[in-house]
Amino acid sequence: MRLDLELPKFSYCGFYDWKLFYLSSSGDMHSISKIIAPKAKVESIQAVQGRFIVLPSSSHSLQIHEIFVDQQAAKMDQDGRFLNNRGSFEKVKENIGNFLIKLGTKSMESTVFT
C-alpha cells in the first residue's frame, strides 16, 4: 500500500512527530501498523509513525550532522538487537571532541552548538 500526502509549509522550526491511525465504527482510535521482516527473519509489528525536522530556510548552506543520543555509550542485549541502557546528553557532551575529530573540525570555535 502507498500513501502520498501533500504537506503545508511549516510556519515554525522544530520537531514534528506524526503517527497514522484510524477511527473504528465505535469511535476508538487504533494505530496503523506495518509488519517488519528484518534480516534475522523474525517478524515484528511497528506503528507507522515518524518525525519531521523543520529547519530555518537560512540553514541550506550549513552542514548539519545528527547525533543519536540514545546510542551514545548504550548497552545492547546479547543478540545486539535491543538497547538495554540508552545513552544520554551527558555522554554526548563527554564525547563531543571525538565527533569533531571525525568531522575534521579541530576546535569548538568553528562549531555552533545549541
Secondary-structure topology with pairs:
Layout: E1 14-19, E2 21-23, E3 29-31, E4 33-36, E5 44-47, E6 49-54, E7 75-76, E8 83-85, H1 89-94, H2 96-103
Antiparallel strand pairs: 1-6, 2-3, 4-5, 7-8
What does this structure look like?
The structure is a single chain. The chain has 2 domains: 11-55, no CATH class; 65-107, no CATH class. The termini are far apart. The radius of gyration is 19 Å and the shape is flat. It is α+β, with helices and mostly antiparallel strands and 114 residues long. It has helices at residues 89-94, 96-103, and strands at 14-19, 21-23, 29-31, 33-36, 44-47, 49-54, 75-76, 83-85.
- Low-pLDDT runs of 5+ residues are none
Number of helices: 2
How much helix is in the residues?
10-25%
Q: What does the average pLDDT come to?
A: 78
Along the chain, the helix and strand elements come as EEEEEEEEHH
Q: Give the strand order of the largest sheet, numbering strands 1, 2, ... along the chain.
A: 1-6
The oligomeric status of these chains comes to single chain
Radius of gyration: 19 Å
The biggest sheet, with number of strands, parallel, antiparallel or mixed sense and barrel status, is: 2 strands, antiparallel
The secondary structure category is alpha+beta
Number of domains: 2
Q: Shape, please?
A: flat
Measured between the Cα atoms of the first and last residue, the distance is 40 Å
- Please provide the count of β strands: 8
Q: Strand fraction band?
A: 25-35%
Could you name the key traits of this structure?
two-stranded antiparallel ribbon; 12% helix; 114 residues; two-stranded antiparallel sheet; alpha+beta
